[in-house]
Design brief:
The protein is an alpha/beta fold. The protein has 3 domains: 71 residues, Thrombin, subunit H, CATH 2.40.10; 215 residues, Alpha/Beta hydrolase fold, catalytic domain (Rossmann fold), CATH 3.40.50.1820; 28 residues. Helix content is 34%, strand content 24%. The protein is built from 10 helices and 14 strands. The strands form 2 sheets. The protein has an 8-stranded mixed β-sheet, with helices on both faces. A 6-stranded antiparallel barrel has the order 1-2-5-4-3-6. α1 packs across α7 and α4 packs across α5. The longest helix has 34 residues. The protein starts with a helix and ends with a helix. 40% of the residues are buried.
Length: 377
Amino acid sequence: MRRALALLAVVLVVAVVAFFGAAWRYADLVDGGALRPDRGPDALDLRIVSLGEGAITLASADDPDDDWRRPGVWGLEWEGGYGRLGELLSESAGEVVRRFEPVAGQPAPGQLARIDSYAFPGDPQQAFAIPFFELNLPSEVGDLPAWFIDGPSRTWVVFVHGKDAERRQALRYLPVIHGLGLPVLVVSYRNDGLAPDGLDRRYRYGATEWRDLEAAVAFAFTHGAQRVVLFGHSLGGAIVMSFMERSAHAGQVAALVLDAPVLDLEATVDYAAERRGLPGPLTALAKWLAGQRFDVDWDNLDYLERAGRLSVPVLLFHGDADRTVPIKTSEALARARPELVTFVRVEGAGHVRSWNADPEAYEAALTGFLRRLVAAP
């Protein structure tokens, strides 16, 4: 009996140590995947098989994500060149044929390439011949690089990109916004690779970055804006929500446009854990460890919990194939504030891919929403 009890004790100790070790490891993954910047270029994971008249055949080279097989509009990057993918013409074992339009350069069969969800290269001038200014906005962490596109309206749109994204993320929407006469400020924030790093070099999902957005909004108001529309993608959506809770300028915000926003970081981490098949108790311990080790206040980053404070119209996009941010958080916001939130659920769209899945429908919803704001007194 003594031997059996001793063996049982050893087994229990080993199990507890293994469980704690697994939780510690997942806390590291939370830090690396959600908090620490990862700004390296995506892999060239597609191979160009052949080119035809207005079409291209692509094959997998290194386990790419599903974008190359999804309907819609995408950019295609290769070494030294850029093009645009359109309609999916056919698909066979390991290959797809799509409409293709070269934009800069001409690819060759055998070259490696990658999908670019931003769909347009360069900057507003290169993409659409829209003139713009390169600005540096002063903030508490230093100068924040920004693009400014002028317009006659006194309502400005301030765009906040997502995690590890570029300002190019805003290019897809510039023709619509510029066409309505709205000035656009495409901003950067601490740790994004353009702006200076914060002290801990971690993304804080609005807890610190809202002050960078406040500096940009203050610039808008000192340069002619009377109202602003805040447009946030993913992490940028969390920054927008934090700004609305904390900034003295929140009362001058006319509306929000959110695309796959991180409305509850804890729910997003839970979603990733579920996709990995991790048991709930292990995920709970990992989140507690991450909170202690990396100074994460989960409750502070739950903007759904404080959705009742919202007081401006919201246009909210989210794809139902998003494997990064759970669509249920956007659905919860729409249910909580139906009088304010116009929710556009996009079938088959991945994370911040709603425009790519159906550009015409996205632009129609955005145009109608912004046009009503411009017409309002």
